[in-house]
Amino acid sequence: MKRVLTIQDISCLGKCSLTIALPVISALGSETVILPTAVLSTHTMFKNFTCKDLSDQIDPIVDHWKSEGVEFDAIYTGYLGTIEQIDQVKRIFDMFRGDDTLVIVDPVMADNGKLYPAFDMEYVKKNAGLCAEADIVVPNITEASFMTGMEYKEEYDESYIKELLSRLNDLGAKTSVLTGVGLEPGKTGVMGYESKTGEYYVYQNNRIDATYHGTGDVFSSTCVGQIMKGKNWRDAMRIAADYTARTIEVTLQNPKKPWYGVDFEATIPELINMK
Ligand code: PXL
Prior knowledge:
Elements: E1 3-13, H1 18-27, E2 31-42, E3 51-53, H2 55-67, E4 74-77, H3 83-96, E5 102-105, E6 110-111, E7 114-115, H4 121-131, E8 136-137, H5 141-148, H6 158-171, E9 175-179, E10 187-194, E11 199-206, H7 215-228, H8 233-252, H9 264-273
Parallel strand pairs: 1-2, 1-4, 4-5, 5-8, 8-9
Antiparallel strand pairs: 2-3, 6-7, 9-10, 10-11
Helix pairs in contact: 1-7, 2-3, 3-4, 4-5, 5-6, 7-8, 8-9
The protein binds 3-hydroxy-5-(hydroxymethyl)-2-methylisonicotinaldehyde (PXL).
The site of 3-hydroxy-5-(hydroxymethyl)-2-methylisonicotinaldehyde has 15 residues, from β1 and α7.
């Protein structure tokens, strides 16, 4: 069985980060080792959330794992709280990255043209440095535009997306996958670029006019789980895009109209059978 380490916060209520990564990657058949970077009462889109930083636990936890001789097939990072934690994560890459360890970085910090409340441009720069070390990065357009210094656009064409992807790869990542890319009216999806082969991959779904928190985490976790199942990055992205779109569709049918997260639990059985 593959073993994945995922490093991100626990938002106790809110359905994002570890509370998505753990069930999704486990459901796809990999052992999922978690390293919580902070415990929050809710994600940061709620008002008045509590947050306990766990930075002081990170080094002792990973040092213990090292002493146990543990190895990981993948390391997947998501929302991190501080600049210092990014340095701690780089140390973890150095400690545990073997020849075949896949490193996936989702530089969670912004959406819809804006940084999340906890972050500033210094954090953006540091996150770009983390992306440089990744095999695959999966930012949204906002995160990519902050990291590359390109203008954020809501209306764009394929050449804008290609330029973002090329600049992301210039940062150092081997493969860049942009999420939330709609190349025609009424569509949304992903576009990726692999430096080694110069190959682009585009996948589009019908756009559903709703935005929810945690959909980026659903997408990234699914990519990780599918790659661990043996899919190449393009198929993993396609399935992750389908699963995310299907989950949004199902969430919209919930009569209680959840606002803070998607009903990914309802669609996990479908995910397991997606090809
Ligand atoms: O889904 C991304 C995410 C993860 N963790 C926390 C967040 C968010 C998005 O807002 O606030 C704490």
